[in-house]
Amino acid sequence: MATGKNARVLVVDDETDVLFAMKMLLKTEVKEVVTEKNPENLLSLLSRERFDVIFLDMNFKSALHTGNEGLFWLSQILERDKEATVILITAYGDVELAVKSLKYGAYDFIVKPWHNDKLLEMLHNALQARSTKRGGSAKASTTESSPILGESEAIQEVLYKIEKIAPTEANVLILGENGTGKELVARALHQKSFRASKPFVSVDLGALTDSLFESELFGYKRGAFTDAKEDRMGRFEAANEGTLFLDEIGNISLPMQAKLLTVLQNRQVVPLGSHQPVPVDIRLVSATNAPIYQLAAQNLFRKDLIYRINTVEITLPPLRERGDDVLLLARHFAAYYAQKNHKMAPEFADATLRKLQQHSWPGNIRELQHAVERAIIMAEGNVLQPQDFSFSPMEMAATPQQAAPVFSADPDTSMPLSEIERETIRRVIEKNKGNISKAARELGLTRTALYRRLNKYDI
Question: Of 315, 338, 372, which closes a domain?
Fold first, then answer.
């Protein structure tokens, strides 16, 4: 079954720049990337060749008058091959249509401009889901099996817990700020468990609206709702006998918490449109950057659900508390991105190392990774200088308290969790005068994740 290096990917978009960017990004991740500018050539192309994943733009400058050409071509692809794995490329203004496309059979969507790491993560998850759906064993890709690096006492304690917990069937709750590597820990727990040869299925709960929660997690039967033209397996069933990773679990609403608790208690799901329960055997790993115990004390998160998801807890330290791990990780990312961009592994000037150590890293490892990638691309020589690393005034002024997750509730508030998050996002966007990039950084989110929340809360 095609995963990673032996996969073939098709990108369909009428913007030459998008096709070039996607090809450059994906060519080192998969066996072959085929690009097509004219969607009217799509069916002819699919009749001659097979692709493991198709990236499809939602809007084309064509003669069609469908309101949205992407949905039309999606239906044409799925009519030809109902097993096709299609990821839609969309702009922020079309997010509502993109969400609707999931009901038509799209695997997922990515918002332009995208973050490279998120797009690659989505690609690998799509390949894994395709493998699982067709009966193959989901093996970790190179990205998924990346090591957890660090020599600090804080990270060594995390590694010790992983070794102790992984071989058990205990449900694990991973706590930590955005960018600290929670999904990496979840994958390590899976890879070191007795379920390692079975699927690892990841779900970003923060990206799911309440209306999509049940169909995405529990699946649905044909006719369950308008446009449900065939049965679809939910993430619980896809993870059967393997590990299910529920990211951002602290951000789901109380009604969704109740539905999740029922499934975890009964170890069975009932797909939408069915009355027949389906047993599931999963190892559950959850993660959140939200102050989950504070929320539980305010009755914004169910205490009985915490007991279910938290047999064992792992708290990841922020990068600013990991000492020289900053330099170790910087050198690791530098070697990786130098090789990826066909350059020699660089050295770091002493002043650069001091600058990296002094920065508070509010975005944690993810921020460091992006900073090193930019430096590798933009540096003039083979020695990285302080000026190769530029931080915004907000990042330079960030304190540990400011770098902590902002999705927290005032102890005296009685607002629902969703309203707290909505108000926080609105306030931060106003503070940054509508600058989405700055607001996303302050919230500890990617632009894509913030766009999805804007759509979710109709901001």
Answer: 315
CB 52 within 8 A of CB 127: yes
Q: What angle do CA 124, 146, 23 make, to 5 degrees?
A: 40
* CA pair distance 277, 271, nearest whole angstrom: 8
- Residues in contact with 279: Cβ distance below 8 Å, sequence separation at least 6, in sequence order: 267, 268
Tell me the H-state helices in 192-285.
210-218, 235-238, 254-266
Same domain? For 61 and 84 the reply is yes
As a whole number of angstroms, the distance between CA 238 and CA 103 comes to: 17
13 neighbors 37 (Cβ within 8 angstroms)? yes
CATH of the domain at 325: 1.10.8.60
Tens digit of each residue's pLDDT (9 = 90 or more) over 340-357: 888 888 999 999 999 999
**Containing domain of residue 411, as a range?**
406-456
Take residue 397 and report the two structure tokens written for it. Answer: 């002024």
Last residue of a domain, one of 315, 349, 368: 315
Distance CA 347, CA 45 (A): 46
345 with 262, same domain: the answer is no
Summarised one tens digit per residue, pLDDT across range 100-116 is 677 678 888 887 778 78
User: How far is it, in rounded angstroms, from Cα 59 to Cα 401?
Assistant: 42
Query: Using CB atoms within 10 A of its CB, is residue 151 exposed (0-12), middle (13-18) or buried (19+)?
Result: exposed
Residue 123 lies in a domain: no
325 and 433 share one domain? no
> What distance in Å separates the CA atoms of residue 333 and residue 352, rounded to the nearest whole number?
15
- What is the C-alpha to C-alpha distance for residues 295 and 397, in angstroms, rounded to an integer? 28
Residue 133 belongs to a domain? no
Q: Do 253 and 187 share a domain, yes or no? A: yes
| 272 secondary structure, DSSP code | B
Q: What's the number of domains the chain is made of?
A: 4
- C-alpha–C-alpha distance, residues 177 and 288, integer Å: 8
Residues 247 and 56: their CA atoms lie apart, in Å, by 26
Tens-digit pLDDT profile for residues 241-263: 999 999 999 989 999 999 999 99
